[in-house]
What does this fold into?
Amino acid sequence: MKNILVVDSHQEYARYLTAHLVEEGYQVTAAFSCAEAIEKIQFTIFSLIFLDLEVEMAQINAMEFLEYIKRLYPEIPVIVISGHDSRELAVEAARRGAYDFLVCSLEEIRFVLRKSLERRRLGIKNKQRNPFENPKKIFEHFYTTKESGTGRGLAAANQTIQAHNGYIEVQSEVNKGTTFMLYLPVSKE
It folds into this structure.
């Protein structure tokens, strides 16, 4: 199931959008501030994020938050929503990594939602063909080649093994399988 985060300080609109997306069959989480959204993305992998431009907190505005999300999770589409139709805002959002910029129309949101999730699914499908084109990437936090993966397992295992002065070696053949070899030093006590 697709997991979507709606970040909107207008609780009534966020609940309205959430209800419509749930009705469409999506799993939706709402956050009413950037701080709350940061907390939620630390514990959940989202397929897509809707970000209202009017969401702000003391140290960060929505555009800065958009950059923050794209720096941490470049593969997650972020759709910026606004009540103001502004070319300047749309260009700024695109420059900072937004997948799309929407003036709050439910039909337009549904269309772009389907399009962006399909694009992400195709990107994941392409990764599944050869996930080891860049083998070091598989050890990055939240990197996954599976639609339902969290990207936490290999990163945590690698971090633990490195903390004990070891390393992981990977051998993989597409459509055949993958072997992970764990090397840890032997203590001579």
